[in-house]
Write a structure and sequence with these properties.
By secondary structure, this protein is α+β, with helices and mostly antiparallel strands. It is built from 3 helices and 3 strands; from the N terminus they run αβββαα. The chain has one domain. Helices cover 45% and strands 23% of the residues. Strands 1-2-3 form a 3-stranded antiparallel β-sheet. The termini are far apart.
């Protein structure tokens, strides 16, 4: 059984919002298996690909992007520790093909 969510905390409110978003038909759900990144002097973009075709462009401030980088890094690191398995990067996968 899942732990109850304490919606009085910022983390609890965020979890409630995420659950509501996943259940909402009006919130876009996007899957990607590739990407390109670029930057300007004030922000950056991530162009998400599905099977080689760009489907979505996400624009982020540098502050948001760095926070995202840290959060994604922790999620992957935690998974690798939990499973005792290193997740390959796309560069690793391509170099193994050659």
């Amino acid at each position: 059984m899942a732990e109850p969510i304490d919606i009085t905390t910022e983390e609890g409110r965020a979890e409630e919002q995420v659950k509501a978003a996943f259940g909402s038909p009006t919130v876009s759900k996007i899957y990607a298996n590739g990407f390109y990144c670029g930057r300007t002097n004030s922000d950056l973009f991530i162009a998400l690909q599905l099977n080689g075709t760009i489907t979505t462009v996400l624009n982020l401030s540098y502050t948001c992007a760095k926070s995202l980088q840290q959060t994604l890094g922790k999620i992957i690191s935690d998974l690798e520790i939990q499973t005792d398995h290193s997740i390959m990067t796309m560069t690793d996968v391509m170099s193994d093909k050659n």
